[in-house]
Amino acid sequence: MVVQLRYGRPGARGSGAFAVTAVLVGSLVGTAAVTGCAAPEDPKSTVDPTLAVRSAADALTKAGTAKASTSMEMAAGGTRVTIRGEGGYDFRRRTGRLQVVLPKDAAGASEHRPITELLTPGALYMKNRGAGVPADKWVRVDTTTLDDGNLVTGGATDPAAAAELLRGARQVTYIGEVDLAGVKVGHYRGVADIAHASRVASPQLRGALTAAAKGFANDTVPFDAYLDGEGRLRKVRHQFSFSNQGRTVAVASTTLLYGFGVPVQVTLPDRRDIYAGKIKA
Description:
By secondary structure, the chain is mostly beta strands. The protein is 14% helix and 36% strand. Strand 7 (169-180) and strand 8 form a beta hairpin. The protein is globular, with a radius of gyration of 20 Å.
Protein backbone atom coordinates (compact mmCIF):
# COMPACT_ATOMS: atom_id res chain seq x y z
CA MET A 1 0.00 0.00 0.00
CA VAL A 2 1.28 3.44 -0.90
CA VAL A 3 -0.56 6.50 0.36
CA GLN A 4 1.15 9.80 -0.21
CA LEU A 5 0.53 12.80 2.03
CA ARG A 6 2.23 15.83 0.53
CA TYR A 7 1.57 19.42 1.50
CA GLY A 8 3.38 22.62 0.67
CA ARG A 9 5.73 23.33 -2.16
CA PRO A 10 7.26 20.46 -4.17
CA GLY A 11 10.79 19.54 -3.16
CA ALA A 12 10.63 21.39 0.17
CA ARG A 13 12.55 19.82 3.01
CA GLY A 14 11.05 18.84 6.38
CA SER A 15 7.34 18.71 6.99
CA GLY A 16 6.33 20.27 3.68
CA ALA A 17 7.52 17.33 1.65
CA PHE A 18 6.93 14.54 4.14
CA ALA A 19 5.60 11.52 2.24
CA VAL A 20 3.67 8.91 4.19
CA THR A 21 2.65 5.38 3.25
CA ALA A 22 -0.46 5.51 4.59
CA VAL A 23 -1.28 3.10 22.31
CA LEU A 24 -1.77 6.17 32.22
CA VAL A 25 -2.13 3.30 33.99
CA GLY A 26 -4.96 4.22 36.39
CA SER A 27 -5.58 2.70 39.78
CA LEU A 28 -8.83 1.88 41.54
CA VAL A 29 -10.07 4.61 43.85
CA GLY A 30 -10.12 3.93 47.55
CA THR A 31 -8.08 1.93 50.02
CA ALA A 32 -8.82 -0.98 52.27
CA ALA A 33 -10.17 -0.11 55.68
CA VAL A 34 -8.38 -1.01 58.87
CA THR A 35 -10.94 -3.77 59.43
CA GLY A 36 -9.65 -5.52 56.27
CA CYS A 37 -12.66 -4.73 54.05
CA ALA A 38 -11.82 -4.51 50.34
CA ALA A 39 -11.64 -1.18 48.54
CA PRO A 40 -14.76 -0.14 46.61
CA GLU A 41 -14.81 -1.73 43.19
CA ASP A 42 -14.56 0.46 40.10
CA PRO A 43 -17.95 0.00 38.36
CA LYS A 44 -16.27 0.05 34.93
CA SER A 45 -14.18 -2.99 35.89
CA THR A 46 -17.32 -5.14 36.00
CA VAL A 47 -18.29 -4.28 32.41
CA ASP A 48 -17.05 -6.41 29.52
CA PRO A 49 -14.22 -4.15 28.22
CA THR A 50 -14.53 -5.40 24.64
CA LEU A 51 -18.26 -4.67 24.55
CA ALA A 52 -17.73 -1.23 26.10
CA VAL A 53 -15.21 -0.23 23.45
CA ARG A 54 -17.19 -1.67 20.55
CA SER A 55 -20.25 0.31 21.71
CA ALA A 56 -18.44 3.66 21.81
CA ALA A 57 -19.47 4.60 18.26
CA ASP A 58 -23.15 4.09 19.12
CA ALA A 59 -22.78 6.28 22.21
CA LEU A 60 -21.36 9.07 20.04
CA THR A 61 -24.24 8.79 17.61
CA LYS A 62 -26.63 9.15 20.56
CA ALA A 63 -24.68 12.21 21.77
CA GLY A 64 -25.05 13.84 18.35
CA THR A 65 -22.22 16.35 18.03
CA ALA A 66 -18.91 17.25 19.64
CA LYS A 67 -15.92 19.49 19.35
CA ALA A 68 -12.84 17.66 18.11
CA SER A 69 -9.08 18.07 18.40
CA THR A 70 -6.79 15.87 16.36
CA SER A 71 -3.09 15.15 16.32
CA MET A 72 -1.18 13.02 13.84
CA GLU A 73 2.47 12.24 14.63
CA MET A 74 4.53 10.70 11.85
CA ALA A 75 8.04 9.32 12.17
CA ALA A 76 10.32 7.79 9.55
CA GLY A 77 14.06 7.47 10.05
CA GLY A 78 15.21 10.63 11.78
CA THR A 79 12.25 12.72 10.62
CA ARG A 80 9.26 13.39 12.87
CA VAL A 81 6.38 15.76 12.19
CA THR A 82 3.06 16.50 13.90
CA ILE A 83 -0.08 17.77 12.18
CA ARG A 84 -2.87 19.20 14.38
CA GLY A 85 -6.51 19.91 13.75
CA GLU A 86 -9.43 21.66 15.52
CA GLY A 87 -13.12 21.68 14.70
CA GLY A 88 -16.39 19.87 15.24
CA TYR A 89 -18.17 16.71 14.15
CA ASP A 90 -21.78 15.57 13.75
CA PHE A 91 -21.93 11.83 14.46
CA ARG A 92 -25.47 11.48 13.18
CA ARG A 93 -24.88 13.07 9.82
CA ARG A 94 -21.28 11.79 9.69
CA THR A 95 -20.05 15.25 8.71
CA GLY A 96 -17.39 17.46 10.22
CA ARG A 97 -15.16 20.46 9.70
CA LEU A 98 -11.53 20.76 10.77
CA GLN A 99 -8.81 23.39 10.48
CA VAL A 100 -5.62 21.42 9.99
CA VAL A 101 -2.32 23.13 10.84
CA LEU A 102 0.90 21.82 9.32
CA PRO A 103 4.18 21.96 11.25
CA LYS A 104 6.76 24.65 10.70
CA ASP A 105 9.88 23.92 8.71
CA ALA A 106 13.35 23.48 10.19
CA ALA A 107 13.90 27.25 10.12
CA GLY A 108 10.74 27.86 12.15
CA ALA A 109 8.75 29.32 9.28
CA SER A 110 5.29 28.17 8.31
CA GLU A 111 5.23 26.64 4.86
CA HIS A 112 1.47 26.50 4.41
CA ARG A 113 -1.70 28.21 5.50
CA PRO A 114 -4.11 26.11 7.61
CA ILE A 115 -6.05 23.61 5.52
CA THR A 116 -9.82 23.52 5.85
CA GLU A 117 -11.15 19.96 5.68
CA LEU A 118 -14.77 18.95 5.29
CA LEU A 119 -15.44 15.34 6.27
CA THR A 120 -18.45 13.59 4.73
CA PRO A 121 -19.48 9.97 4.08
CA GLY A 122 -17.28 8.75 1.23
CA ALA A 123 -15.54 12.05 0.53
CA LEU A 124 -12.97 14.49 1.91
CA TYR A 125 -12.90 18.13 0.78
CA MET A 126 -9.76 20.23 1.30
CA LYS A 127 -9.16 23.96 0.80
CA ASN A 128 -5.68 25.54 0.80
CA ARG A 129 -4.43 22.14 -0.26
CA GLY A 130 -1.39 23.59 -2.00
CA ALA A 131 0.47 21.52 -4.60
CA GLY A 132 -0.66 23.77 -7.44
CA VAL A 133 -4.31 24.05 -6.38
CA PRO A 134 -5.61 27.65 -6.47
CA ALA A 135 -6.19 29.09 -2.98
CA ASP A 136 -9.89 29.66 -3.61
CA LYS A 137 -10.55 26.13 -4.83
CA TRP A 138 -11.44 22.89 -3.08
CA VAL A 139 -10.09 19.42 -3.74
CA ARG A 140 -12.47 16.47 -3.44
CA VAL A 141 -11.09 13.03 -2.58
CA ASP A 142 -13.15 9.84 -2.75
CA THR A 143 -12.20 8.17 0.55
CA THR A 144 -13.49 4.78 -0.62
CA THR A 145 -10.64 4.70 -3.15
CA LEU A 146 -7.88 5.51 -0.65
CA ASP A 147 -5.71 2.64 0.54
CA ASP A 148 -6.14 3.86 4.11
CA GLY A 149 -9.79 4.93 3.92
CA ASN A 150 -8.74 8.40 5.12
CA LEU A 151 -7.42 7.07 8.42
CA VAL A 152 -4.14 8.83 7.57
CA THR A 153 -4.27 10.61 4.21
CA GLY A 154 -5.94 13.85 5.31
CA GLY A 155 -3.51 14.45 8.17
CA ALA A 156 -6.40 13.92 10.60
CA THR A 157 -8.37 10.73 11.12
CA ASP A 158 -12.10 11.20 10.53
CA PRO A 159 -13.54 11.13 14.11
CA ALA A 160 -16.36 8.80 13.05
CA ALA A 161 -13.89 6.45 11.35
CA ALA A 162 -11.74 6.48 14.48
CA ALA A 163 -14.76 5.38 16.53
CA GLU A 164 -16.08 2.91 13.97
CA LEU A 165 -12.67 1.24 13.85
CA LEU A 166 -13.23 0.29 17.50
CA ARG A 167 -16.13 -1.95 16.44
CA GLY A 168 -13.38 -4.38 15.50
CA ALA A 169 -11.80 -4.22 18.97
CA ARG A 170 -10.34 -7.40 20.46
CA GLN A 171 -7.85 -8.36 23.17
CA VAL A 172 -9.21 -5.41 25.15
CA THR A 173 -8.00 -4.78 28.69
CA TYR A 174 -9.50 -2.32 31.15
CA ILE A 175 -6.52 -0.42 32.59
CA GLY A 176 -8.34 1.73 35.13
CA GLU A 177 -9.92 5.12 35.74
CA VAL A 178 -8.03 8.32 34.98
CA ASP A 179 -8.76 12.03 34.87
CA LEU A 180 -8.97 13.55 31.40
CA ALA A 181 -9.38 17.33 31.42
CA GLY A 182 -11.43 17.14 34.63
CA VAL A 183 -13.58 14.22 33.48
CA LYS A 184 -13.30 10.73 34.99
CA VAL A 185 -12.84 8.26 32.16
CA GLY A 186 -12.10 4.57 31.81
CA HIS A 187 -8.89 3.65 29.98
CA TYR A 188 -9.03 0.65 27.66
CA ARG A 189 -6.23 -0.87 25.61
CA GLY A 190 -6.39 -3.41 22.81
CA VAL A 191 -6.12 -3.91 19.07
CA ALA A 192 -8.69 -3.21 16.37
CA ASP A 193 -9.25 -5.60 13.48
CA ILE A 194 -9.82 -3.36 10.45
CA ALA A 195 -11.44 -6.09 8.34
CA HIS A 196 -13.94 -6.99 11.07
CA ALA A 197 -14.67 -3.32 11.75
CA SER A 198 -15.39 -2.73 8.06
CA ARG A 199 -17.99 -5.52 8.05
CA VAL A 200 -19.93 -4.23 11.07
CA ALA A 201 -19.40 -0.48 10.58
CA SER A 202 -22.21 1.98 10.01
CA PRO A 203 -23.21 2.11 6.33
CA GLN A 204 -21.80 5.62 5.85
CA LEU A 205 -18.30 4.55 6.93
CA ARG A 206 -18.29 1.02 5.57
CA GLY A 207 -16.82 1.90 2.19
CA ALA A 208 -13.83 3.78 3.60
CA LEU A 209 -13.00 1.09 6.17
CA THR A 210 -13.38 -1.62 3.55
CA ALA A 211 -10.78 0.19 1.45
CA ALA A 212 -8.47 0.40 4.49
CA ALA A 213 -8.95 -3.31 5.21
CA LYS A 214 -7.71 -4.10 1.72
CA GLY A 215 -4.91 -1.54 1.71
CA PHE A 216 -3.13 -2.01 5.03
CA ALA A 217 -0.59 -4.81 5.16
CA ASN A 218 -1.41 -5.40 8.85
CA ASP A 219 -5.08 -5.83 9.70
CA THR A 220 -4.67 -5.02 13.39
CA VAL A 221 -4.17 -1.54 14.86
CA PRO A 222 -3.15 -1.05 18.51
CA PHE A 223 -5.26 1.52 20.35
CA ASP A 224 -5.84 3.25 23.67
CA ALA A 225 -9.44 4.40 24.18
CA TYR A 226 -10.93 6.52 26.97
CA LEU A 227 -14.69 6.34 27.64
CA ASP A 228 -16.73 8.51 29.98
CA GLY A 229 -19.57 7.42 32.28
CA GLU A 230 -22.04 7.48 29.39
CA GLY A 231 -19.87 5.26 27.23
CA ARG A 232 -18.88 8.12 24.93
CA LEU A 233 -15.44 8.11 23.40
CA ARG A 234 -13.48 11.02 24.85
CA LYS A 235 -10.06 10.16 23.49
CA VAL A 236 -8.61 7.50 21.23
CA ARG A 237 -5.08 6.94 20.03
CA HIS A 238 -4.40 4.55 17.17
CA GLN A 239 -0.95 3.42 16.08
CA PHE A 240 -0.50 2.69 12.40
CA SER A 241 2.66 1.33 10.83
CA PHE A 242 3.48 0.61 7.21
CA SER A 243 6.27 0.67 4.67
CA ASN A 244 7.06 3.51 2.27
CA GLN A 245 9.86 3.12 -0.25
CA GLY A 246 11.73 0.72 2.01
CA ARG A 247 11.26 2.80 5.16
CA THR A 248 8.95 1.96 8.04
CA VAL A 249 6.64 4.86 8.82
CA ALA A 250 5.01 5.00 12.25
CA VAL A 251 1.85 7.09 12.59
CA ALA A 252 0.14 7.84 15.90
CA SER A 253 -3.29 9.40 15.39
CA THR A 254 -5.05 10.92 18.42
CA THR A 255 -8.62 12.23 18.52
CA LEU A 256 -10.05 14.19 21.47
CA LEU A 257 -13.81 14.75 21.78
CA TYR A 258 -15.49 17.24 24.12
CA GLY A 259 -18.23 19.89 24.21
CA PHE A 260 -20.96 17.43 23.26
CA GLY A 261 -24.11 18.95 21.80
CA VAL A 262 -22.46 22.01 20.22
CA PRO A 263 -23.83 23.15 16.84
CA VAL A 264 -21.81 21.75 13.93
CA GLN A 265 -22.63 23.02 10.45
CA VAL A 266 -20.96 21.71 7.33
CA THR A 267 -21.73 23.32 3.97
CA LEU A 268 -20.27 21.53 0.99
CA PRO A 269 -18.65 23.64 -1.73
CA ASP A 270 -20.40 24.35 -4.98
CA ARG A 271 -19.31 22.14 -7.84
CA ARG A 272 -17.86 25.19 -9.58
CA ASP A 273 -15.47 25.71 -6.65
CA ILE A 274 -13.99 22.20 -6.84
CA TYR A 275 -10.62 22.04 -8.59
CA ALA A 276 -10.56 19.61 -11.51
CA GLY A 277 -6.99 20.20 -12.67
CA LYS A 278 -3.83 18.25 -12.06
CA ILE A 279 -2.38 18.21 -8.55
CA LYS A 280 1.40 18.42 -8.41
CA ALA A 281 3.27 15.63 -6.63
